[in-house]
Write a sequence for this structure.
């Protein structure tokens, strides 16, 4: 992609395959991407207010996405946050009720595309407000 980068996206997911798939799709849209396996570092090191958009998996070992969602909203209430799952549509819907900006079940390619488009739109809105 030629031109200005749209911002930094953080992907928090314990599955490296899904992180890599999301990274590739987001980078094609002009976004810089950081990946984080939540099992590798403590929450306080993972969550920093430097990201334009945070993508958060719901189903993870030890600390699930709902806990991360509550932590992020408490520390950075204005953080743009998209929650997703793979095959569990009710979890992202519940996350939106808890305060996520959007939620998707990315088990189907069309929903994955919607997630990427939503992240791109949020990044563009953030760029305009700077």
């Amino acid at each position: 992609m030629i031109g200005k980068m749209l911002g930094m996206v953080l992907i928090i997911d314990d599955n490296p395959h899904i992180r890599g798939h999301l990274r590739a799709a987001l980078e094609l849209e002009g976004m810089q991407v950081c990946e984080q396996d939540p099992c590798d570092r403590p929450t306080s090191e993972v969550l920093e207010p430097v990201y334009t958009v945070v993508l958060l998996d719901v189903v993870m070992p030890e600390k699930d996405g709902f806990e991360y969602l509550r932590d992020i909203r408490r520390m950075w209430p204005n953080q743009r946050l998209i929650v997703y799952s793979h095959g569990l549509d009710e979890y992202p819907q519940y996350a939106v009720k808890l305060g996520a900006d959007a939620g998707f079940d990315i088990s189907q390619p069309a929903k994955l595309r919607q997630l990427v488009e939503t992240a791109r739109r949020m990044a563009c809105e953030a760029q305009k407000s700077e």
Q: What stands out?
A: The chain has a mean pLDDT of 85. The CA atoms of residues 21 and 112 lie 10 Å apart. Residues 8-108 form a domain with the Rossmann fold fold (CATH 3.40.50.2300).
